Design the sequence.
């Protein structure tokens, strides 16, 4: 089954690029494919022929042979933007989002058509989300096997905090503060902090499967799936103009609280509050910061 590119504008632009790259003969019909196969037999190291044949295969729905021809073309000329573009389309059609992103990135760097570059720049973000979703699905499916291998203690995942208070406009702080803490904890060379988007993809997948990912046991499950040795979870309490944040470090293998920290500040001192929590977490994680790392926080 061919993956259909959802952006109609991108499709139209790509068709124009293909016509220019192949002299208008890349419609993918049997005659065009047969002619290009003969040309490849005569000139097996011709990059333009391999590129045109790959495009023709792609348009005929033959993704397997399209990928082979386009990969060969790219080996002969790594800077061929058109070959990279169609390799990306082909890989995306095969749900190989890693290869698709790499190929599209090559077009963004070397491609000649600015409209395609701009379209692909926004498409790359969408592909990253799809890639993370596929990885998360695979990880959740393999949860039992992953849970048998404890995560390293220096691998840390920061979960969204839980907000409670009268001003519901502050609820986005659940993820906002978690993102700031993730950034600050990653400043230490002694820690490997799970990327926020990867963490969120696993949490979303667990919710889709009605796995109860928002409770404490679900948090530990997420940590095991992510191969994290420790988790950071916590809460935000609004009391009038004041915010209180409580954060705990959870040891994933034992599910026990390994340490905790807290601070409370006025809302207009939110960044100071976050920095104090980050420094407290470093202490609970047993991490001594260098002068440069501390100054960066």
Sequence:
């Amino acid at each position: 089954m061919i993956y259909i590119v959802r952006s109609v504008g991108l499709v139209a632009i790509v068709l124009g690029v293909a016509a220019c790259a192949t002299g208008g003969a890349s419609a993918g019909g049997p005659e065009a494919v047969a002619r290009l196969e003969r040309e490849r037999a005569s000139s097996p190291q011709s990059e333009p022929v391999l590129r045109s044949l790959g495009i023709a295969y792609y348009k005929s729905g033959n993704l397997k042979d399209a990928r082979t021809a386009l990969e060969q073309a790219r080996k002969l000329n790594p800077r061929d933007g058109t070959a990279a573009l169609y390799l990306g389309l082909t890989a995306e059609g095969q749900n190989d989002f890693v290869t698709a992103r790499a190929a599209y990135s090559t077009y963004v760097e070397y491609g000649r058509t600015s409209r395609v570059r701009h379209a692909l720049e926004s498409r790359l973000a969408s592909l990253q989300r799809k890639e993370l979703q596929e990885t998360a699905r695979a990880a959740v499916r393999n949860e039992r096997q992953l849970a048998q291998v404890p995560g390293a203690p220096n691998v840390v995942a920061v979960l969204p905090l839980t907000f409670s208070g009268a001003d519901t406009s502050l609820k986005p702080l659940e993820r906002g503060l978690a993102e700031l803490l993730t950034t600050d904890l990653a400043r230490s060379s002694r820690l490997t902090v799970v990327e926020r988007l990867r963490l969120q993809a696993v949490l979303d997948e667990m919710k889709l499967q009605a796995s109860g990912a928002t409770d404490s046991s679900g948090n530990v499950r997420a940590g095991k799936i992510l191969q994290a040795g420790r988790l950071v979870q916590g809460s935000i309490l609004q009391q009038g103009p004041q915010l209180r944040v409580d954060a705990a470090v959870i040891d994933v293998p034992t599910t026990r609280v390994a340490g905790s920290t807290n601070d409370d500040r006025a809302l207009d001192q939110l960044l100071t509050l976050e920095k104090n929590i980050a420094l407290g977490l470093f202490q609970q994680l047993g991490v001594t910061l260098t002068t440069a790392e501390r100054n960066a926080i």
DSSP finds 13 helices and six strands in the chain. Residues 8-134 form a domain with the Serine Threonine Protein Phosphatase 5, Tetratricopeptide repeat fold (CATH 1.25.40.10). Strands lie at 152-158, 162-164, 192-193, 228-239, 242-251, 256-266. The two ends are 49 Å apart (CA to CA).
